[in-house]
Amino acid sequence: MGFLHELYGNGAVQPTNKTRQHMPKSEHTQQRPHETIQTLDELARLIKIWGQEMGFQQVGITDTDLSSEETQLKEWLKKGYQGDMNWLAEHGNKRSRPNELLPDTQRVISVRLDYLPADTDQIKILKSSEHAFVSRYALGRDYHKLMRKRLSQLAQRIETAAKKLPEEILSTSNITQRAFVDSAPVMERPLAAKAGLGWVGKHTLLLNSEAGSWFFLGEIYTSLPLPIDKNDQENQCGDCQACLKVCPTDAFPRPYELDARRCISYLTIENKGVIPVEFREAMGNRVFGCDDCQAICPWNKFAQFSQEDDFQPRHSLDRVKLVELFKWNEAQFLKNTEGSAIRRIGHEGWLRNLAVGLGNAPTTNATISALEDKLNHPSALVQEHVQWALKQHENPNRRRKRKIKAPTHHSG
Ligand code: B12
Ligand code: SF4
Ligand code: SF4
Predict the structure, then answer these.
(1) For 212, which DSSP code?
(2) CB environment 57-88: b (16+ within 10 A), e (fewer)
(3) How far apart are CA 31 and CA 313, in angstroms?
(4) What atom of ligand 1 comes closest to residue 193's alpha carbon?
(5) How far is CA 319 from the centre of its chain?
(6) Ligand 1: nearest atom to the Cα of 181
(7) Which phi and psi (to 5°) does residue 321 adopt?
(8) 8 Å CB contact between 283 and 248
(9) CB-based contact 354:328 (threshold 8 Å)
(10) Is residue 129 within 8 Å of residue 281, measured between CB atoms?
(11) Which mutation among 290, 402, 403 tests ligand 2's pocket best, with the greatest number of atoms within 8 A of CB?
(12) DSSP letter at 7?
């Protein structure tokens, strides 16, 4: 059975076909100026309502204890699974000890924001090797700024309300809070799981039985001793191993553990250098990130499309041909990726990834001539990947390896 059949012909998960809905703003939940909140329980309840009014689909509160995750993180780093992402090993214990990152932190308010745009034909595009497959999270505007801004507004609203709490409930007026989205040393998935937003699946992402996994995470660290939520989302992966089996590059040494060095997301986004040849055929047309382990997950049939206009695809990135993207010069690249997560990899990284995609595309005049045009590109990195791609086309009847195995066998 071919990989694509395995992935999409046999139980792969198509997202629900709901149209985008905007959450109604429930005016009665707005705190009126004359109202004062009397207890921390009441504040916690309002924080969730405010969060949802701001567009977050879920909000949960947890404590800062990540002691067992700290051990797992250290073991993961010891194995070198982080590759060149040295920043994951920096900052001492700040990543697993929230109050070492922000002194006085007592609680973490964790939020989720759905990002899957509607009607992007993701399976069709992944199967069409002349098209570029860009991860669903990167089709629209970069999520970092949008989420951080909203979280900061939420933090401000919490602080204003907390300062009015009776003194016997909250004795200090010194409230410390900070919003984070992805970029700081924060263990977002374990914190979100503790806060009741879902469970960490075998693919290492956070998922939820009512929402799947197509969402971003963000958090507010706070010194407020808010009541914490219980996680009623038990791990419901059961015997399923679909994500482990579908991974084109065999990046899971075992369930719940990812060797980032083998993950297409790492290879195309975080990796700044050469893409090792062993992974290139398996990458197919995935030119920015990879979604396979999520696309196959049965819980994603409960995913809902994003309500954010900002996450809708720009420049037809959900259905554009590889050749077309490869023709963007640096100025076009910078213009077309303004405000997008794609910009981070730079024009050179973009061409590198697209060259691999073109090496895996059908042999056509358009593909060959687009590649030949870049043979003398000033970047040696681009040149090398273009040469590899052209070599692939020397045999138009070749069969691409769609899936590779890690050298040491590991079971799922
Ligand atoms: C580094 C990073 C990556 C790396 C490494 C990924 C990884 N699995 O660690 C790469 C570049 C590969 C990557 C890829 C992607 N990423 Co990323 N990434 C991050 C980042 C910045 C740090 C993650 C990290 O600390 N990893 C180190 C590991 C060891 O730590 P951990 O994830 O916290 O894992 C712990 C738990 O899993 C725990 N655990 C819990 N239960 C169990 C059970 C068992 C038995 C075991 C052993 C362990 C265990 O053990 C681990 C150590 O404590 C986070 C943001 C953040 N600050 O957290 C985003 C983040 C995880 N990424 C995200 C996304 C969207 C992606 C991609 C889907 C993007 C794409 N489409 O290409 C892919 C998915 C690949 C995958 N299957 O994970 C989202 C995930 C949202 C979600 N629903 O979970 C995050 C949270 C960003 C965000 N703010 O939304 N990412
Ligand atoms: S994102 Fe793709 S390459 Fe990375 S672990 Fe998931 S399926 Fe494998
Ligand atoms: S595909 Fe299966 S094993 Fe993987 S996260 Fe989803 S339910 Fe869990």
Answers:
(1) B
(2) bbbbbbbbebeebbeebeebeeeebbbeeeeb
(3) 35
(4) 40
(5) 20
(6) 89
(7) -80, 150
(8) yes
(9) no
(10) no
(11) 290
(12) I
Q: What is the pLDDT of residue 2?
A: 31
The DSSP call for residue 24 is P
309 catalytic residue (yes or no): no
Nearest CA to 293 out of 320, 264, 269 is that of 264
Give mean pLDDT in consecutive 10-residue pieces for the chain, a chain of 412 residues. Answer: 34 48 42 72 98 98 97 97 96 95 97 95 95 97 95 97 91 90 94 98 97 98 96 94 98 98 98 98 98 98 95 95 98 96 97 98 97 98 98 91 83 42
Q: Residue 302, Cα to own-chain centre: how many angstroms?
A: 18
| Beta-strand pair 286-288/133-134 | parallel
**28 secondary structure, DSSP code:** G
Predicted confidence at residue 119, as pLDDT, reads: 85
Spatial distance between the Cα atoms of 115 and 309, rounded to a whole number of angstroms: 10
The rounded Å distance from CA 272 to ligand 1 centre is 19
| Residue 213 CA, ligand 1 centroid: distance in Å | 12
- Name which residue sits closest to atom 5 of ligand 3, judged by CA: 201
pLDDT at position 35: 59
- Beta-ladder partners of 288: 134
Strands (E), 25-81: 58-62
Structure tokens at 100: 């070492």
What is the gyration radius of the CA atoms in the chain, in angstroms? 23
- pTM of this prediction? 0.93
Q: Name residue 98's beta-bridge partners.
A: none
- Which neighbouring-strand residues pair with 111? 59, 218
Tell how far the Cα of 369 is from the centroid of ligand 2, in angstroms.
31
From the number of C-beta atoms within 10 Å of its C-beta (0-12, 13-18, 19+), residue 216 rates as: buried
What is the 3-state secondary structure of 240-262?
CCHHHHHCCCCCCCECCECCHHH
CA proximity to 147, closest of 27, 57, 31:
57
> Which ligand is closest to the CA of 207, given by its number?
1
Exactly one of 104, 182, 318, 373 is catalytic; which is it?
A: 182
Query: Can you spell out the DSSP letters for 80-118?
Result: TTTTT-GGGT-STTTTT-HHHHSTT--EEEEEEEE---S
